[in-house]
Amino acid sequence: MPFAFTRHESLSPTQQHQLLEIELLPEQIRHVGDIHGGLHTLTARPAADRQGFALLKDDIPRGFFVLKRRSLLPDWARDHAIVTTTLHALMIDRRFQGLGLGKQCLRALPELTQALWPDTEQLMLAVETGNHSARQLYLALGWQELPERNGDQPGFERLMLLTL
Ligand SMILES: CC(C)(COP(=O)(O)OP(=O)(O)OC[C@H]1O[C@@H](n2cnc3c(N)ncnc32)[C@H](O)[C@@H]1OP(=O)(O)O)[C@@H](O)C(=O)NCCC(=O)NCCS
């Protein structure tokens, strides 16, 4: 299923509206929030340290994620001596899940990140412990799960890392 990445600020007004129509399943919203929460992360400043992307299928946004760096890195990504970019709010519209979009997006992410912020040496993310399908997906694509911090309980997060 071919798709294109586009920066959030490059979306047309129609696409901005379509982006808001991205839906997740109720249990997925419990894990990651919804598109409104994802878009809220784009209010963080400085704008130079975060970038939102939409995944376009036939020119319509069907997926979304945010990359952050430097001053906007979460605490869990700051302890690392190497240059880190973090991935947030990855979501594929529920009507387009299971078609390979998520996998293709993650496969393309290293190249996209290095084109955006060439000094990036590793990607990191936090995934809810109970979000098994997302954890499996990251592991299958070469991400490494870091040792647990808060116990392997629902509601807690596991950190994952991909060296570029
Ligand atoms: C996780 C997510 C991004 C994956 O996107 P996707 O486009 O559905 O993923 P793909 O179609 O590329 O499938 C990747 C793997 O996910 C699993 N998967 C995807 N959809 C599934 C479904 N409906 N049922 C069961 N497993 C599924 C499969 O194991 C699949 O691997 P396979 O192709 O080897 O079988 C998407 O499900 C999503 O938006 N989830 C809600 C938000 C979320 O959890 N984000 C992660 C935050 S850390």
Account of the protein in words:
It is a single chain. With 164 residues, this protein is of the alpha+beta class. The chain has a single domain, classed as Gcn5-related N-acetyltransferase (GNAT) (Aminopeptidase), CATH 3.40.630. It contains 5 helices and 7 strands, in the order βαααβββαβαββ. The protein has a 7-stranded mixed sheet with strand order 1-2-3-4-5-7-6, sandwiched between helices. The radius of gyration is 15 Å and the shape is globular. The structure holds coenzyme A. Coenzyme A binds next to α2, β4, α4, β5 and α5.
Please give a quick description of this structure.
This protein is an alpha+beta fold and 164 residues long.
Topology:
Layout: E1 4-7, H1 13-19, H2 26-32, H3 35-40, E2 50-57, E3 60-69, E4 84-92, H4 101-116, E5 122-128, H5 132-140, E6 144-145, E7 157-163
Parallel strand pairs: 4-5
Antiparallel strand pairs: 1-2, 2-3, 3-4, 5-7, 6-7
This protein binds coenzyme A.
